[in-house]
Amino acid sequence: MNRLAAALAFAMAACAADEPRRDEFRVVIDTVDGVEYVRAFGAPRVFAVEPGVRIGSAGGAGDPGPDEFGMVRSVVADAGGAIYVADVQANEIRVFGADGVHLRTIGRSGDGPGEFNALYALAWVGDTLAAFDPRNGRIGFLSPAGDWLGSTLYLPLTGDPMTVRFHAASVDEVYIIGYLRREDGSRMIFNRVTGSGIADTLVPPPLTGFGPSPVIVCPHPDGGISFFTTPFAPRHLTTPAPGGVLATSWSADYRVAFVTEAGDTIRVIERDYRPYPLMDEEWEAGTADYRRFREEMPGVRCEPPGLSRPDAKPAIRHLFFDAEGRLWVERYAADGFAYDIFDRDGRLLGTADAPDRDERFPPYARSGWLYQVETDEFGVQQVASYRVVGLDGDG
User: Which letter does DSSP use for residue 277 in this model?
Assistant: First the structure.
């Protein structure tokens, strides 16, 4: 068991001691062997979530409008609340005011300056907008007005938008995934992005002592490969955190560890949490694609050979940091999901209901506002904003 696993095991045991009444909110901070443990108990402040704007339409006769999206992969906002939407199908960045009014469109298809061939992800690096374009093998840099400032070559990575994206620890600390090739196999790393290129690398330490991977690999007889993820299965969640460290969690437990590249744990955040049961209809819906695949290709041998149903839902679905460097933990709740928001010192500021989002695409938060991709009942993508009342002292 490595130092991260040992620290998380200590935190699990410590949770059982000195627990206050469940209705009394309290943050307890202990330091043991140089590791700070920040534990939240009871019912914290509840932030109200107020709808802002909703952008997106199904289209109609005539030329498509700027709010008719082909495929949105990424959404960010600037300091003034303007919303920048990356449409990978149109290879355009559509910019809307905080009121939802279209302001301008940046880019077009192509491989020249200011053009894109696969507009995968956006991020603010200070006052510079970074745009990842894997088909052109580069990260482009633009001004808020859309002026092309230059580019840097980058790996042509494609895949899951929750993985192949920018990982922002704050507006001034932005990373993108990469791979470190070694004799014992490739390892995922995070490369730090500046306004002019790649600065340095953050290498996650090896993680051991946890459960099996939720990914099922099914090689086809013709050489193709299908990948399936066991629904509701625990998994490792890792993202860069402010200060050049990593926030990591085994999602079965409400526990987030902050670790260095050397594998040293410097802080562990916890909250008392009771898992929610996994209902039969949720399991059936989540495994439908895998079962259909096995019926259509009965001779395929998968590894592992089948889906193992979890006893309960995991505690955490997603981790990310807002532009101010606060940690947002998207956790399972009684009816959907909720966000727990922590300050830079690991103290729980409060919790807020999480509006339904398209789980394929990452949310974004800045200045007390939440931005996300949603899909209506007709499968039409929309971009929505929400104000988290009181998070920045505004309510």
Answer: B
354 by DSSP, 3-state: which? strand
Task: Establish whether the linkage from the previous residue to 304 is cis, with ω within 30° of 0.
Answer: yes
Q: What is the CATH number of domain 47-61+69-203+358-395?
A: 2.40.10.500
Structure tokens at 367: 């200045």
Query: Element (H or E) spanning 250, and its range?
Result: strand 245-250
Helix/strand/coil (H/E/C) assignment for every residue in 317-337: EEEEECCCCCEEEEEEECCEE
Percent of the chain exceeding pLDDT 70 equals: 91
Helix H, strand E, coil C: the string for 104-166 is EEECCECCCCCCECCCCEEEEECCEEEEEEHHHCEEEEECCCCCEEEEEECCCCCCCCCCCCE
Question: What type of residue is 318?
Answer: H
Please measure the distance between the N-terminal and C-terminal CA atoms of the chain and give it in whole angstroms. 46
More confident residue, 371 or 157: 371
- Give the C-alpha separation, 13 to 225, whole Å: 41
pTM over 0.70: yes
Domain map (residue ranges) of the chain: 47-61+69-203+358-395
Pairing of strands 265-271, 35-41: parallel
Q: Tell me how far apart the alpha carbons of residues 340 and 43 are, in angstroms, rounded to a whole number.
A: 11
Residue 128, Ramachandran bin (φ over 0: left; ψ between -120 and 50: alpha; else beta): beta
Query: With bands split at pLDDT 50, 70 and 90, how would you rate the model's confidence at 213?
Result: confident
Both tokens assigned to 126: 């200070």
- Amino acid in position 235: R
pLDDT in the model for residue 128:
97
Angstrom distance (rounded) from CA 114 to CA 91 = 10
Closest by Cα among 356, 358, 316 to 336: 356
Q: How far is CA 368 from CA 351, 363, 371, 390, 392, in A?
A: 13, 13, 10, 8, 6
pLDDT more than 90, % of the chain: 69
42 burial level (CB within 10 Å; 0-12, 13-18, 19+): middle
Question: Is a pLDDT exceeding 60 seen at residue 344?
Answer: yes
Contact 264, 6 (CB under 8 A): no
Q: Which of 167, 189, 125 is nearest to 319 (CA)?
A: 167
pLDDT band for position 163 (50/70/90)?
confident
